Amino acid sequence: MTLRRFALLLPAAALLPRPARAHALVIGSEPASGARLAEAPREVVVRFNSRIDAARSQLLLAPRREAAGGTADERRLDLVSGGPDTELRATLPPLAPGPWRLRWQVLALDGHITRGDIPFTVGG
Ligand SMILES: [Cu+2]
């Protein structure tokens, strides 16, 4: 195509709607957000609405202390590989009873990073 025609097409392309499947959002997890579990879970799974780059994504776990707000004792979980590329899975160390916060940060294949928290509680 001529350079002139190319220049005319550019503005139109910029106005095209973005793909409906954009960055990764959580569609489910085990434990579920806000869950109260009688026994400590052995693993966590977070499922997303789109494919993610697991090598550039992470799951972190910390005791939840709303008042303190610090992340000093947050630990990065080792991801279990080999599952679907729309989920993150990690085995857990033994968890003490109490409130916990699973934090996820993922890179979707569209290059966008998203993050969020999944709080859950072990024990009554
Ligand atoms: Cu996106």
Number of helices: 1
| Overall average pLDDT | 86
Through-space gap between termini: 69 Å
Judging from the principal axes of the Cα atoms, what is the shape?
elongated
Signal peptide: 1-22
Protein name: Copper resistance protein CopC
Keywords: Copper, Metal-binding, Signal
Domain CopC: 23-122
Structural features, described:
With 124 residues, the chain is mainly β. The chain has a single domain (23-122), classed as Immunoglobulin-like (Sandwich), CATH 2.60.40.1220. It is built from 1 helix and 8 strands, in the order αββββββββ. The protein has one helix at 3-14; strands spanning 26-30, 35-37, 43-48, 58-63, 75-76, 87-91, 98-107, 113-122. It has a 5-stranded mixed sheet with strand order 2-8-7-4-5, with no helix packed on it. Strands 1-3-6 form a 3-stranded antiparallel sheet, with no helix packed on it. Bound molecules: copper (II) ion (CU). InterPro entries: CopC/D (IPR032694), CopC_dom (IPR007348), Cu-Rt/internalin_Ig-like (IPR014755), Ig_E-set (IPR014756).
List the helices and strands and how they pair.
Layout: H1 3-14, E1 26-30, E2 35-37, E3 43-48, E4 58-63, E5 75-76, E6 87-91, E7 98-107, E8 113-122
Which key terms come to mind for this protein?
Immunoglobulin-like; binds copper (II) ion; 8 strands; mainly beta; 124 residues; three-stranded antiparallel β-sheet; five-stranded mixed β-sheet; 38% strand
